[in-house]
Amino acid sequence: MRIDAHQHFWVYDQSEYAWIDDSMASLRRDFLPNDLKIELESKGFQGSVAVQARQTLEETRWLLELATDASFILGVVGWVDLRSSNVRSQLEAFAGNPKLVGIRHIVQSEPNDRFLLQPEFLRGISLLEEFDLAYDLLIYPKHLPVAAEFVRRFPRQRFVLDHLAKPPIKSGSLRPWERGMRELGTIPNVFCKLSGLVTEADWRNWKPEHIAPYMDVAFETFGPRRLMIGSDWPVCTLAASYTRAIDLVESYLSQHATEVQEAALGENAQQFWKLGTRQKQLPGDSQHTVANGKGKREGDAAHASRRGCARNEK
Ligand SMILES: [Zn+2]
User: Fold this and answer.
1) What is the pTM of this model?
2) CA 232 to ligand 1 center in whole angstroms
3) Residue 243 CA, ligand 1 centroid: distance in Å
């Protein structure tokens, strides 16, 4: 199964998407499942993972609603306030929905370069394993050493690095980004998305050979079982059509064996987030949720998650 491991949806609103500046004016419109479906089908993808773009609980709820209506959205990486003292109840509110597969915080925009290591944030992350949720790292190269220190504290938590930590493709330099990548890649519970690369290059003049050296480092560091393709649609359209953004990674992968290609084009994402397998747990889990209603006890999510793990651990 081919899966696009990273895409976004939005109903454009200037105040909620203030990061879309004048240089990105073409993104100032709605991007919804029907728009993506055409692109996915054109490249032979059967599913996608929708990633949060707003830091609100409403964003998580809305993406899960879209995923309920559009079966090709196999998973949602949502947002909860990981620093909040009531993060547990925020997570519990979504625990009955098997399509919530991960959480992301827009760490790249935080003024504190050591944001990941704040005690409140660490406390929030420490709950994710219990809810069987992965965590998406959205960071810049300067954060890589801190990220390595951060993930080492959670050896059983699944992490995935977005966009190779946004390497300086436009300038063509590899260091110190490469050093940080090689350190993070030694930690086995961290995966990496081959995504968001065209927008780190010169939007108008990039060529595959400008980007290949960065994918080489990702490959050498994370190996074929911890990489997954993602379009970063619609953001990618600033620098390439959906087809061109996908072709870049797909043709890079074509130098490798078929098994390696299939792994990076979908299998790794499927296994990392347990996509589809989680869906099979739906009937039992939803009955459970209905029976317990809103007063669902804390232990239930942990129980469900352990049950899921045991089933999927082959
Ligand atoms: Zn993105």
Assistant:
1) 0.88
2) 5
3) 16
How far, in Å, is the centroid of ligand 1 from the Cα of 217?
Answer: 21
Residue 208 to residue 210: CA distance in whole angstroms: 5
What pLDDT tens digit does each residue of the chain (314 aa) get?
999 999 999 999 999 999 999 999 999 999 999 999 999 999 999 999 999 999 999 999 999 999 999 999 999 999 999 999 999 999 999 999 999 999 999 999 999 999 999 999 999 999 999 999 999 999 999 999 999 999 999 999 999 999 999 999 999 999 999 999 999 999 999 999 999 999 999 999 999 999 999 999 999 999 999 999 999 999 999 999 999 999 999 999 999 999 999 999 999 999 999 998 875 333 334 333 333 333 333 333 333 333 333 333 33
Residue 42 vs residues 39, 72, 187, 243: alpha-carbon distances, Å: 5, 14, 35, 8
Peptide bond into 208 cis (omega under 30): no
For residue 129, which of 148, 104, 154 has the smallest C-alpha distance?
154
Identify the CATH number of the domain in which residue 209 sits: 3.20.20.140
Total number of domains in the chain: 1
Range of the domain at 139: 3-312
Instruction: For residue 176, say if its preceding peptide bond is cis, omega within 30 degrees of 0.
Output: yes
Q: How far is the CA of 53 from the centre of ligand 1 (A)?
A: 7
Compute, in angstroms, the gap from residue 123 CA to the centroid of ligand 1.
25
* Residue 6 CA to ligand 1 centre (angstroms): 6
Distance 196 CA to ligand 1 centre (A): 7
129 C-alpha to center of ligand 1: Å?
A: 23
